[in-house]
From TrEMBL:
This is Threonine alanine tRNA ligase second additional domain protein. GO terms for biological process: tRNA aminoacylation. The keyword Cytoplasm applies. Residues 83-126 form the Threonyl/alanyl tRNA synthetase SAD domain. The lineage of its organism: Bacteria, Bacillati, Bacillota, Bacilli, Lactobacillales. It comes from the Bacteria. SMART domains: tRNA_SAD (SM00863). Pfam families: tRNA_SAD. The keyword Ligase applies. Keywords: Cytoplasm, Ligase. It comes from Holzapfeliella floricola DSM 23037 = JCM 16512. One of its GO terms (molecular function) is ATP binding.
Amino acid sequence: MYNHYGALAKSSAIEENHARLEIQFPEDRVPDNLDKESFKETIDNLIKQDLVISSEEVDRGELSHEDLIRTYTNLIPESVRHVRLVKIEGLDEQACGGTHVSKSNEIGDFDLTQLKNKGRLKKRIKLALR
């Protein structure tokens, strides 16, 4: 979503068999219509690329210098001085404290269960693992 529209992750919740992600688009790049099937196909193709996923801890001050950060880093409490960055090889880099796979194809098959408007600039995406 970031590559096509400049959308940033606003919030997320990852569970054992499902996930929710809310993204926010910039004012000038809100898509008129997102097709659920083509969106799922795009995600599925990325998963099948078997991308390496790694992490590293950085000082919070370094976050403003990262070119690949796709989350709202201002959501991280000021008291947090060190942040774990999770990198998806050649695709993305996020500040995150959750559990992650080591390669994208470990995710497996999934269903895109929801692609919903949550206001003019926000979309909610829900996925369920098969």
